[in-house]
Amino acid sequence: xxxxxxxxxxxxxxxxxxxxxxxxxTDQNMMAYVILDSASxxxxxxxxIWRGSNAVNVLExxxxxxxxxxxxxxxxxVTVNFERLSIQAYYPLNSNSRFSYSNTVExxxxxxxxxxxxxxxxxxxxxRFIEIWGLGAIVLTLFGILLHYAFIRxxxxxxxxxxxxxxxxxxxxxxxxxxxxxxxxxxxxxVKGRLYRSQKRLNDAEQRWLFAVExxxxxxxxxxxxxxDVFVSDRWKEILGYQHYELDNDYSVWESxxxxxxxxxxxxxxQNYINNQHDEYESVHRLRHKDGRYIWxxxxxxxxxxxxxxxxxxxxxxxxxxxxxxxSQRISVDKPNHNxxxxxxxREVLADQLYDLxxxxxxxxxxxxxxxxxxxxxxxxxxxxxxxxxxRLLMQIAARLSGSFSNAGTVAxxxxxxxxxxxxxxxxxxxxxxxxxxxxxxxxxxxxxxxFTISEQNLSITARIGLVVFDGIESLExxxxxSRADSALEQAKDSRSNGCAIYQPDLxxxxxxxxxxxxxxxxxxxxxxxxxxxxxxxDHAGQLNSVEVLMRWxxxxxxxxxxxxxxxxxxxxxxxxxxxxxALDQVLLLINSLLQTNANVPVMSLxxxxxxFHQDHFAHVVMSRISAAHISPKLLQFELxxxxxxxxxxVAKNKIIELQDYGINxxxxxxxGGSCGVHQLQGISFSQVxxxxxxxxxxxxxxxxxxxxxAVVEFANKLNLPVxxxxxxxxxxxxxxTHAKCTGFQGYIISRPLDQDDIxxxxxxxxxxxxxx
Length: 773
Known about the structure:
By secondary structure, this protein is of the alpha/beta class. The longest helix is centred in the N-terminal third of the chain and has 49 residues. This is GGDEF and EAL domain-containing protein. Keywords: Membrane, Transmembrane, Transmembrane helix.
């Protein structure tokens, strides 16, 4: 139209414009179609009445501003007016015409009605929506029906079946049309099978547990901590003399029956276990019987349930009546001022039992066994904690042994720290009997080695066991069997025996009765049977580093007695204090004589037993003797075993620091032997640590042993602890230990132990002892 108007204006053919406008007017939706000049006056219009009028006055949708904007940009402007439901358009005409009339028209303005078009489109869209919605509803209905039969219905049936999975009417004959539902159904069947097998195993385990408990004749208790409810079994009630229908399920049923002297300790032990301060709950105490008397019980428990915060909710335990075993030990816990434990067991009764056991073995043709159990370091614990707590420890050991092995045979205490188990029915074959006896001994050692809690102190104690296996044919006197067991016990104290040894006939030739040794020790120093020898310790260059002082005992009847034997016998008595102080005095005299010759005196190292070290007066006594001799404490070194930390570790550490402050060197013997926790070494600067001799046994043949030695030495070096390798017997061992970076060496390959004259000569001349490969 713009082109028509422009061409018509150029040719002055206004009639053609009139025709074109009239033609446009035939469209009923064309609300306004006008041609305007620059003053917005209407020159041509689809309605003749508008001609000559100003568009601002007659056209409601017209905008003069948009008119001028379109002319200014020479671009059409089209917009949709949603209020009037119309399209408004401004089309500028070519204003560069050379004809003057062209200045009279410059814009075509039109407004087109779209109300009918929108109405038609809305009706069409609504019809289309109805068609689509109807089809969608049909599809959704079909999909829902398919979903119900394919998934929801079988899933509901499977869920209903799962609720009855542990019941006999469980049924999974469910039609599943999808692979997933079929897999779920098959898995449910699999779970049903597993559940059935688990329930069967659980029922079987429960039956076996009940059988084991009934066989052991233990009473069971089950305590719900939060509610205070306590279930006690019929056997628990029977032990205390009650019928199964008596006693309420309440915590007070147990606590109210505790003996008043035991109550505080038992409750503290139980509370400490609940607070996770101990690994297990175990106590030996008295409970009041229905008839008013008190019985001794071994009480054990274990936490079996916790809440989400890790707090204990439930404990299950057992009690065992050990009254007879505790009373047989004659442990006087009711008398705080008692004189301690003595060998009060009726040996005539034990002898009768040994006679009867031999007769039984002879008739049945089966082997029996005598186990003699010796507690390691009991004397040390007894001295450190006091005899009353030592009695408590023995009581718990007796109760634990009785509770575990009374069915296997007889349990008795032979001496202060010795127990005896008589066991029968070990089979008809001697090799098999030996294996079973060793297995029983190993079980006993593990049972004792679990540790004990006495007055809130955790005690660790180990045991050595000597065994005699017999069939009764020899018909030996009970004293002979006990003597053989004692010989085996001495052999069990060897580090290579793993703590257990079976009697062999050749042991009699090597054995001296400990009781005989103890009586002879009394006269050994007085009769000048004791002597000292001195073994040098050298560095890599062979220079004398220190000297270890060793005790020797030559007996007129038995000859030279092994230090391991007579020192062990001395530790059982108080003679250990006397002989170690005698050794200290002799060393002080030797140092004094060397100093008078202006000799360069090396450090003299004395072995101090753990029992002597833990005596309250030890530090004061040795310091007094050193001061009286006017000898520098720096010339002395005390070698201590790792087991000094087994009891009162803090006290031991403080005493070591006290001795070091005084100037005495402190060394640790048998380093890495496993008797001491690494954390207990913190804060102590040892002058030496002597590698445990057990590491040298296989170092020549076993690369793993050498790797372990390397690791132990490296660990010690990181702690700035000089490592001395002792008991070196050949050059191969020496080479390996040199490569392991030990800082000191001691053994026969370096020098045998020297008497006083020889060590004096060596020190005066300062000879170099070669350690070269």
